[in-house]
TrEMBL record:
One of its GO terms (cellular component) is cytoplasm. PANTHER family: 5'-DEOXYNUCLEOTIDASE HDDC2 (PTHR11845:SF13). This is HD domain-containing protein. Keywords: Hydrolase, Metal-binding, Plasmid.
Length: 144
């Protein structure tokens, strides 16, 4: 039996709480979308359309990296919440709170996983040109 560090299981258990974080947009006409639903749908869409994104951009895209980024980009919202992207006043506080949450949650992960998650999260937060424009566009296009 492989001895898997308990920190990994604790983290996976923690990520399940994304189902509890509600976004500002609707999943259906009568129900708000959870962050978990949003992240899953973003990952599924990226997987299905990644070759189309490659053709459109003229660049080869790393599908594994895309999927990781889709799945983890909102993990900090478990601790920080999901403030509206259109709330200009709260952006500085949001960035500080999310940075603290990312560092706290990812720090204890073994096998370089914490460093990988923090680097991916920073890349996502930095925005274009470090991350492909598809992610920014698609994240917003799933709103109903």
């Amino acid at each position: 039996m492989v001895d898997i560090p308990h920190e990994k299981f604790d983290f996976v258990r923690h990520t399940a709480r994304l189902r509890e974080v509600v976004r500002h947009n609707n999943a259906t006409a009568g129900r708000k979308e959870s962050v978990a639903e949003h992240s899953w749908h973003l990952a599924m869409t990226s997987w299905i359309l990644h070759r189309d994104f490659e053709r459109e951009s003229g660049h080869r895209l790393d599908l594994a990296r895309m999927l990781k980024m889709c799945l983890m980009h909102d993990l900090v919202e478990i601790d920080a919440g999901d403030p509206s992207a259109w709330d200009g006043e709260g952006k500085a506080d949001k960035a500080r709170i999310e940075e603290e949450a990312a560092r706290r949650r990812f720090a204890d992960l073994p096998d370089g996983l914490g460093d990988e998650l923090l680097a991916l999260w920073h890349e996502y937060e930095a925005g274009p040109p470090l991350r492909p424009g598809w992610c920014v566009a698609w994240t917003g296009s799933t709103r109903r």
